[in-house]
Structures are given as structure tokens and as C-alpha cells.
Amino acid sequence: MNDFDAVWFDAGGVLVLPDPTVLAPLLEPYGGSADLERHRRAHYAAMAVRSKRGDGEREWVAYDEAYVRSVGVRDNLVELASRLLNACRVPDLWRWPIPDSMAGLRKLHAIGVPLAVVSNADGQIAATLERAEICQVGDGPRVPMRCIIDSHDVGVAKPDPAIFDFAAEHFPGVDRSRILFVGDSVTMDIGGAAAAGLRAVLLDPFDDYPTAEFERIRSIADLVGA
After folding, report:
1. How far is the CA of 182 from the CAs of 90, 132, 153, 214, in angstroms?
2. The whole model's pTM is what?
3. Phi, psi dihedrals of residue 223, rounded to the nearest 5°
């Protein structure tokens, strides 16, 4: 992990999560925990279920069920709570900054690592990241990115490796084998980035993939030490 020239990031699950300050009170009447860290854990538990199933970009039923179970929704209310989560987990709700990711981003920028975002989104991700005071394209008060690629805007989504071509245009002269792409989905991120010739790295803060053959980190801050 100590041999790279740039780092690109997925947004959801890496920089931001579905806002637990909204989801916690939404699910609490069904037995869900109000603890925000419990909701953070639920996202990665649910993503592990999606990854193990090989679910595609539009398949979120298993995620919703695993999420509500992880936060403690009562068994007899799982189906109802899952439908409610699915209805409310809209793109604009992916806005809660992950604290240690923010710290790691700032440190990577401080040591001069070129950065970018490549996200499957709905045309909103650049504005969301800016409003959340995470990053912006070019200089500004937040961490600068060379580009923020939104699948809606470019017309292609992960795991199609072509989406990464749009980011590569902003990194002339940088060999793809020396670019890390950090994501939270084995199917979308690891598969897509590897197919594009990047070094695919999974953000796995709770060790949900202990036998995986691909590279994993627990936090973006791990890259700073590298």
C-alpha cells in the first residue's frame, strides 16, 4: 500500500453515508437503535450482503433488509421497515460525512497526493460533497479534487470500467497501476476499478471480508501512514 501516485474515491460508503440522523428516528419506532455508530456499522454490514450476493447497482432489497436487521429492527417488522428505508434512502440523503474519512482526506491533501472522486450517483454528488464541506473541484475551502465524476453526468456507471476514463483525463502521465481506487462495494468498485487497470482497494472498517484476496483498509487514514 506504500506505492501509489494518486488516490480516487467512491463517494457513498467511503466519504459519506446515508444520513443516520434521519434514518435513526425513522427506524426507531420499529425497534431500530438510535445510536449513530450502530447505523454506520449497518451500512457496511448491508454492503457485505450485497457484495456476497453480487447485487448490481439497482438492487438494494437485500441491503435494506440487512441494514434494518443490523440496527435492531424487530423481526416481525423487518419487511415494513425495509420498504420504508428503501423509500427514504434517496440520493440526496447520502450526505453524512464519515469523520475518519474526512481526517484522512485532509492528511492526504496535506502531503500532496492528487485526489479525485468517481461515483455512481444521480447528478447530485459534487454539490452534496461541497455542501457537506468535504471537497470541491479545484481550489477552495475544502479538500481540492482534480475532478468529481458522477455516473449520471457521464452516462456510464461502475462496474463498467469506462467511467474511470473520465477521471484519467485529469491525471495525464499517471500510470493507472499507480492509482488507488477506494470503494465499499466488491461488485461495483473492486470489480470495476480492477477492470480499468487501477489498484482496487476496499474500505472495510469492520473486517467483513477477512479472507478476501484484494487489498483492504480500515480507514482512509491508513493510506497516510503508507
Report:
1. 23, 20, 21, 11
2. 0.94
3. -70, -30
